[in-house]
Automatic annotation (TrEMBL):
Residue segments, region Disordered: 1-21
Protein name: Glycerol-3-phosphate dehydrogenase/oxidase
Family: Belongs to the FAD-dependent glycerol-3-phosphate dehydrogenase family.
Domain Alpha-glycerophosphate oxidase C-terminal positions: 432-553
Residue ranges occupied by any FAD dependent oxidoreductase domain in the UniProt entry: 31-377
Keywords for this protein: FAD, Flavoprotein, Oxidoreductase
Length: 584
């Protein structure tokens, strides 16, 4: 078994229209993956590295479904211990430790602290929850139960000292460390997991690694699976409306919480899924940011739900809920959920004021959980399984992924790809264990190494800019810098953190089809609350000549982006009288 050449240049990305044409012009592959969330993309990468003829499509943008609504964490799942999911915890911890090494540009160690308000609470009820997976009466876990959990977690987390062991502190030491925290606590427990500051770009790097394997690997966003006929899966280009049949020996359904809906469209009705909605808010609150002490606060609220307060990108992410959801409807963060988040912040940091004016972004998504009937949402397994059945209308196999989460995407893809290789009668030739992802390749591992990289690559753009680009793209920043300096460039007037040529590069090579793709998934502009109407206008003008938009299309994209930001993400933009026109 081999590993790919690690010295290759930037992967061959392309425009969205060209990628769609590559699928439609050759409507045949050994494997067709439907659903380009992180698990579909990771499976695509794994298969592409084995030389399998594989294509992946998504009805929307890449990573725009369930994968876009994560808590931005790579974690071992300490709370899964109470569910008895020891296999999942072991795999999750191993994959967390691996991602810290193979994707260090986006995955960083995260100190996590649990405030504890009692000593023995939950000891009697925990065994019943473990045995029955019923929530029962809400009861916070006390120090004894959490200590047992931390010891078990450490046993899974041993990795040559890569991740420190947990520590317990008493009230006095805890208040000295976190002076704004609720003084009624008795202890704190602190352990390490990992943060994922830009999950969408991590997923794109995984995708680009797959595309770099060769022309046998193709991908396209905004192509929807709408049916099945004797010639194959019916696909529809959601931009042009064109429909065509795509032939594949194996169809892989990785559409997450929409898996049953996709199977129904393919004439293979299923009832595998039972996802729950999770919402988050992003706050611009410097006092709360300082109160966290740079660590995630992870705890159990009085209703028994696990929640978090998490410093991220100069903001504070607060989440999450765990509510039933109708998959035919968009997921939105409701006002009741906002009230709930504010209540929990007040519970942990009672002296820190929070209000709705500080919310710069809110989002919601549905976890791709298995059907759970009367099982309490918090106890539904976060593990995954793969369902196999005949394709139906034509010879072949339909594989459906049930479950899956960000942390285990590499291991899950290895499992899924192994099943597919068996069906194809092929052997694995390339291992993804320890294989660097995208800009994580040769990423400087120490502060000193980072300074050397920044000095070497900052000669043309300046060291400050080089450092920003390294954070944004990992070591792929070297190719970005080459592009930026090939012709005259200038910062955006409405967002100096980006330049015109940087946006042009993204539009030209990363399958941007709509303005929202850029705002939500190619950059973190929306997440950080940095969108303004003048910025939308400027960005549309930069995209226009690259994507062939006229003035009417620019106006439509700006209007759609403003309405979508308000409707789904709670972003209010003040009106502005600025004409929208393509840039020249």
């Amino acid at each position: 078994m081999s590993t790919p050449d690690q010295s290759s240049s930037a992967p061959p990305q392309s425009s969205g229209a060209a990628a769609q044409a590559a699928i439609q012009d050759r409507p045949r592959a050994q494997v067709l993956i439907i659903g380009a969330g992180i698990n579909g993309i990771a499976t695509f990468r794994d298969l592409a590295l084995q030389g399998v003829d594989v294509a992946i499509v998504d009805r929307g943008d890449y990573v725009s479904g369930a994968s876009s609504a994560s808590s931005h964490m790579i974690h071992g799942g300490v709370r899964y211990l109470e569910n008895g999911e020891f296999r999942l915890v072991k795999e999750s911890v191993e994959e967390r430790n691996s991602l810290l090494k193979i994707a260090p540009h986006y995955v960083k160690p995260l100190k996590t602290t649990i405030p504890i308000y009692s000593t023995v609470s939950g000891v009697m009820s925990a065994p019943m929850r473990f045995l029955t997976h019923k929530q029962g009466a809400a009861q916070e876990r006390g120090a004894l139960l959490i200590k047992i959990g931390m010891m078990l977690y450490d046993s899974f987390s041993r990795d040559g000292g890569n991740v420190p062991r947990h520590e317990f502190l008493g009230r006095k030491a805890s208040l000295k460390l976190l002076p704004q925290i609720n003084p009624s606590l008795k202890y704190t427990a602190t352990y390490y997991d990992a943060s994922m500051h830009d999950p969408e770009r991590l997923a794109l790097d995984v995708l680009f690694d797959g595309l770099a394997a060769g022309t046998h690997a193709r991908s396209a966003n905004y192509i929807e699976a709408v049916g099945m006929d004797a010639a194959g899966v019916r696909l529809r280009n959601t931009v042009t409306g064109a429909e065509f049949s795509f032939e594949a020996d194996i169809v892989v359904n990785t559409s997450g919480p929409w898996t049953d809906l996709t199977n129904t469209a393919l004439g293979q009705a299923s009832t595998y899924m039972g996802g729950t909605k999770g919402s988050h808010v992003v706050l611009d609150n410097p006092e709360l940011l300082a109160a966290t002490g740079g660590r995630e606060i992870f705890f159990e609220h009085k209703d028994g739900r696990i929640v978090l307060i998490y410093p991220l990108a100069g903001r504070v992410l607060v989440g999450t809920t765990d509510l039933e959801h109708d998959m035919t409807q968009p997921a939105r963060c409701t006002e009741a959920e906002v009230d709930y988040f504010f209540e929990l912040v007040n519970h942990v940091f009672p002296k820190v004021a929070v209000d709705r004016s500080q919310i710069v972004f809110r989002f919601a998504g549905v976890r791709p959980l298995p059907r759970h009937d009367d099982e309490a949402p918090g106890f539904v397994s976060r593990d995954y399984r793969i369902e196999s059945r005949p394709l139906g209308a034509r010879p072949g196999t339909l594989l459906s992924l049930v479950g899956g989460k960000w942390t285990t995407f590499r291991a899950l893809a290895e499992h899924m790809s192994g099943d597919i290789l068996t069906l194809l009668g092929k052997q694995r030739t390339v291992s993804t264990v320890g294989l660097a992802i995208g800009g994580g390749r040769d990423f400087p591992a120490t502060d000193a190494a980072r300074r050397v990289w920044v000095a070497a690559n900052g000669k043309q753009v300046g060291t400050e800019r080089a450092d920003v680009l390294l954070t944004r793209y990992g070591t792929r920043a070297t190719e970005v810098i080459s592009w930026l300096t090939a012709e005259p460039d200038a910062p955006l007037a409405q967002h100096p953190g980006y330049t015109r040529r940087e946006i042009e590069l993204i539009a030209s090579t990363e399958s941007v089809m709509h303005l929202m793709d850029l705002l939500l998934r190619r950059t973190s502009i929306a997440f950080r609350g940095e969108v303004t109407l003048p910025l939308l206008t400027e960005l549309a003008g930069v995209l226009a000549p690259i994507l062939g938009w006229d003035a009417a299309r620019c106006a439509h994209e700006v209007d759609t982006a403003a309405n979508t930001l308000l409707d789904l993400y709670g972003v209010h933009l003040a009106p502005v009288d600025t004409p929208v026109a393509p840039a020249v």
